């Protein structure tokens, strides 16, 4: 049986041994290209030959045979001379001393731009080692190239490299290139409608990636065609007779299945080899659209069609412009046969893909609007940008199902210095990048170099940026850094980091407070184990106890009372000071109008201290509550002067009491801020009895400190010490509840 598809490939292959001559290439292009500037094309040929000089391919051929072969492939899909020349020169800027300016001067700006585009793609390729990100890489290519001819040159380059890949010695290199071809370039070829190129790339890659499977499938295919040779020849004859009977002029091509496409179906579906492979295919090529439907009608009238396999891509072309009728019938001998029915033009389109719509009369515009529209491509909308043209170009089942270029625009494609592609939402910043690379990288990110330059972490990343994360040895991000991220991953990681750091700080603070409290009660912390105290006080663990105390949910006084019953009521051994609480308030506060024996309470809203001017309010059922004279709550009692009681501190209070002052601090929400604040308080001779985090924003944290001091003067000193810290925005005596 004639096998035109294979024959076509053999035909191409025969052109390659040796080098295509200058004259040969000129003739091939002139054959289809009107007004070809033969001088320019010829000069480009000579230039490539001269620039690549003595460089050689792995095959031993002179290097320039490669760009010449690439140019010939581009001529085969009848591209314009600018593209052919770019094919000839595609490796000159990358591999020789040629420059953009020189190429532009000799061959024109458009040629130089195409060569530049190809060079950029090639450079990206070397950076991108991770083929599992192939889909992203495809998107990246589509989002960044602005001239589809760049892609066409790149595809031709890849076809020739794959055809000669067996010359490469290193197996791992062959495998890497084959995977990249399979994952990136074959789908892109599909996408631009170059089916032949796509299936050749697939087959050549398959040969490298899984040679045994390919061999096995080809062997079975050969067996199967031999088994069915008679049937197939009869079907072919039946078809010819049928067409002659209808008076339709046609060409019939036999199509042989590709080993790789069978393999893929076997991989994806649980079907047997025979189920996939016993559908043989013929292509019927006719003169007009009318004839396409005539062929379809007569075929269906003699053979039963399988309805679920009928497709009319003429009335509804594929998004990339593909047109044809597809039907599968049960032909002679109950043999399943697929028929593809199309016109010569459609066949040409199927072979040349987007290149079929190139218009040589309109060089500035590139694509022929009429032809593109006829192919179902929205010319007006698409002709300006080739990547836009591709936006709907996907065959949903084959490639990038959710493919919409707008979607890619919402992404930014960035790279690690080693070339790993990191796709982020548009607007992403270096921390998003760092966390996308790895949580550990994000956690220690303290800066970034973008394209080699040190840039602020607030910088928005752009397509193609190479981002180097500068890492420290310690976790760096603090809560405020959330504002420099847009990805959920970075945000939740920063929150997690902040939380765990906070927990650690509170735990340490708690341990410190417990330690202080024990000393005040005359207990040497070295004599006791904190674990034992935790157990005695009813905590599950030391950490739980330390956190409860550190976070201010549990008072050290209660802890001491619980864990050291004998010590709870002992006065502070060193200081001989009386803490002010409701029990001893009457010893410390006195007033002329104060009824003897009345219960005194110290107001929590303003926590009065010896030295403060104070006033009492008689509250029913409660006694007298002591406020500072400036307490805001006093306004509540303005209308009831009879409740007011004049009070003063006793001498004992002024000289020896320990009181609790409450301070509100607003500090930068930074790593270690709690430790800094506590150290400052301790240095100013204040004992922190309780800390409470009141509010924690991105940039600032509000803290309430209960600090034991002997008098107001001490508290003022502590306030001054806190205010002197660079992390402190504000430190005030808390006067309201
Ligand atoms: Mn090349």
Structure description:
The chain folds into 6 domains: 4-209, Hypothetical protein af1432, CATH 1.10.3210.10; 213-352, Beta Polymerase, domain 2 (2-Layer Sandwich); 379-474, Ubiquitin-like (UB roll); 497-567, no CATH class; 578-654, no CATH class; 656-733, Alpha-Beta Plaits (2-Layer Sandwich). With 737 residues, the chain is an alpha+beta fold. It is built from 31 helices and 22 strands. Helices cover 47% and strands 16% of the residues. The chain is elongated. Residues 1-16, 361-369, 371-409 and 568-576 have low confidence and may be disordered. The strands form 6 sheets. Strands 1, 2, 3, 4, 5 and 6 form a 6-stranded mixed β-sheet that branches. The termini are far apart. It binds manganese (II) ion. Manganese (II) ion binds next to loops.
User: What is the class of the largest domain in the CATH system?
Assistant: Mainly Alpha
CATH superfamily of the largest domain: Hypothetical protein af1432
Number of domains: 6
Q: What small-molecule ligands were found?
A: manganese (II) ion
Structural class: alpha+beta
Indicate the low-confidence ranges by residue numbers. 1-16, 361-369, 371-409, 568-576
Q: What is the first-to-last residue Cα distance?
A: 96 Å
Task: Write down the oligomeric state.
Answer: single chain
Rg, please?
41 Å
Helix percentage range: 40-55%
Count of distinct strands: 22
